[in-house]
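Shapes recur. One chain:

:::
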Amino acid sequence: MVERVLLAEPRGFCAGVEMAIKALTWMVRVFPPPVYCFHEIVHNATVVEVFERAGVVFVDSIDDVPEGAAIMLSAHGSAPEVVAAAASRSAVMVDAVCPLVTKVHHEVRSKAAAGFEIIYVGHEGHDEAVGTVAEAPSAVTLVDPERGLADFAPSDPSRVALVAQTTLGVFEWESVLADARGRFPELWTARRSDLCYATTNRQEAVRELALAADVVLVVGSETSSNTMALVRVAREHGAAAYRVDAPDSIDPAWLESAATVGVTAGASAPDSSVRAVIEAVNPSGGVEILSVSRESEYFPPPPQLRAFLSALQAAVEAGVSARHPGRPGPLDDDRSWGATEALRMLGG
């Protein structure tokens, strides 16, 4: 019987996911269904299902979006041609790309323009990797962290840049970084790591869980890169670790000899899923918080959404002869609510 659950802090939604979920919630509230979203807004099946029930249609091609429809681009970042096509095709286009992904896109464009050959460390086929490589495909070589640099041979070893998918495991990134620095002494890397702060923080917390728990359960979807990295980190530090979407993903055999179960969640997993997993584990001695760090990061709504809602407010006020210049707009209290409330509002 499980005696206690150790619950990692931080866990779950990061600032980029918070921003994207709230932005798509605004789209659902403002526009009649269907609202279209290019790729899953975040890589979590539960979140996607909530939005699908609310009238969101997720597509993998802008060609599947009717002319004049409202469209949002996912948090993972999109290729330049996708952004351009969406802006041309839709009445309102909102790009919910995470600012940390935008930073990497900028690095790729800048270094490519300066004539660097760029190593992008990421997982082939992941939405974020696809969008980033597309910023300068002729200058970028995608390197899977498990394979490493292999036979990468630049034409000018003095002009090599190294960038990363934001959701990589720290151990994945550091192994490639060390190899690249050894091969290319003049290697360029960003002063501030490309790895997402939330990814790093959650990996630090799961390391502590792995040392204190008999079994670690990581809540999140298989398509979530940072969730799968948490599983790998826990295993690297000696714990039996498993990814679960929901209580029905738990194999009772995992818990048979576990007195302490560690629970954490990937950056796109809702807290409702975490609570459901803890309830299923049913620890006799309750839940203890294992706090490693605290997060206060906040990303404001996408600029296209801010501009649209401000224009909408002005139009409504003008229509009823009730202009109030300077009156707070609908996004001015954005810090006061979160993605969990947004999903609950939509019935999730």
Observations:
- The longest strand covers residues 4-9.
